[in-house]
Amino acid sequence: MKCVLHDIDTDDVKVADELVRKYGDWTPDYLIPQVFLEYDDGSIKHVLTGNPRGVEFTKDAVTRLVRSGTLSSETTEADRGPRPQSTRPS
């Protein structure tokens, strides 16, 4: 699994904005991080949006995502090559 981080404090914000606009929880001042799985066939799945209450709440959400088995079931499809993409918190 490959991880790609898009830093919204750089020109990479354009890529991050497009991902969130098309597949995520879009608002003009969207929450970060947002995590996506991108497959070799071009399909993209949004799997997490950060919590506005703070980093600890987002950390808990990531922990729940990892423990939920969602990522494990996605990685069993290794032939499809899931690659998470995420915007990085500022």
Radius of gyration: 13 Å
List the helices and strands in order.
Answer: EHEEHHE
Tally the helices: 3
From the spread of the alpha carbons, the general shape counts as globular
Question: Could you explain the architecture of this structure?
Answer:
The chain is of the alpha+beta class and 90 residues long. The chain contains three helices and four strands, in the order E-H-E-E-H-H-E. It has a four-stranded mixed sheet. The longest helix is centred in the last third of the chain and has 13 residues. The C terminus is likely disordered.
Summarize the structure.
33% of the residues lie in helices and 23% in strands. The protein is built from three helices and four strands; from the N terminus they run βαββααβ.
Topology:
Blueprint: E1 4-7, H1 13-23, E2 34-38, E3 44-49, H2 55-67, H3 70-75, E4 83-88
Parallel strand pairs: 1-4
Antiparallel strand pairs: 2-3, 2-4
Notable traits:
single chain, 90 residues, alpha+beta, 3 helices, 4 strands, 33% helix, globular, disordered C terminus
